[in-house]
User: What shape does this take?
Amino acid sequence: MKPIPLVHPAVRRSVSAAALGLTAALLMACQPAPAPVEPVRAVRTWVVGTAPAQAQLEFAGEVRARVESRLGFRVGGKLLERPAQLGQTVKAGQMLARLDPQDLKLGQDAARAALSSAQAQAEVAESEFKRFVTLRDQGFISGAELERREASVKSARAAVEQARAQLNVQANQSGYSTLLADVTGVITGVEAEPGMVVAAGAPVVRLAHEGPRDAWFSVPEDRVAAVRALQGRKGALTVRLWGADTRTWPATVREVAAAADPATRTFLVKADLGKAPVSLGQTATVVVPGPPVAQALLLPLTALFEQGGKTQVWVLDRATMTVQLRAVQALAPVGNQIAIAGGLKPGETIVTAGVHTLSPGQKVTLYVEPKP
Assistant: This one.
């Protein structure tokens, strides 16, 4: 009698085929994936050429008043009101703020009472002096005694003058409880609010005087000498205001800081804007001219990037349509371009857009503007 097989042959063949398929799949999964093919990128290009250029530097500046005062009270006290608001135009003599005058008025009353007392003492001394003059004429007192009485009269008169001067001081102190604008201008800052107790001399408001306007900007240490060389030369700088008005205006370097700012290590420069139609606080771009370059290689700023501590560009080989890195030496910016000292030759083609997405030897194609 033949034994009955535990697994049917057809089932055994199916299991073997499935095992072979699973083994093949595992072997394929262990193999490394093929490297992705870099896409052919479209790039913008620029043909290198030489041209005479004028190097220039641009700095962000702010329009400020030639004279700006921090106004405060000559006496201390509690601030009752401050009618002056930020950005408000005020006239000379207009009230800006007011202190509580109660204590100052009491001091004025005390000085007035002291003056009355001194005047009374002086009247008594003068009456006694007249009587002693009569006694001296009759021979009842000596001349020395009369001189002492005369000295008492002079002392009483001096006490009256002292009390009168103290009364005037207290009257001025009462008047100092009101802060007035000494010139016409614009309130550019508020540093105290009603209810605060302010000390004598503490700033309450900042007042920009009406008159000339300057452009304030900061330059690094390596450019200070070049800016100082332009000081006093009329129209040596060019200012371009931010906003809809794209016109440029001449400016003159008026003042250069003698020391660097302790925080930014830059030097503050003030340039006279002349008759330019500017507003306080307006942002401006100040263009400082540099030395002229006879024949310079000019590149767009977008073509340059930093890699490995060097300034580099992508050079296009038109025969193979591939790009390679090339180190260049930048000189100075010229508007939206930059002059370089070496690393390229006239007639070579460089990439000006998409420089951060390329790799050495990558194939590229020239970008074509789409038709409208």
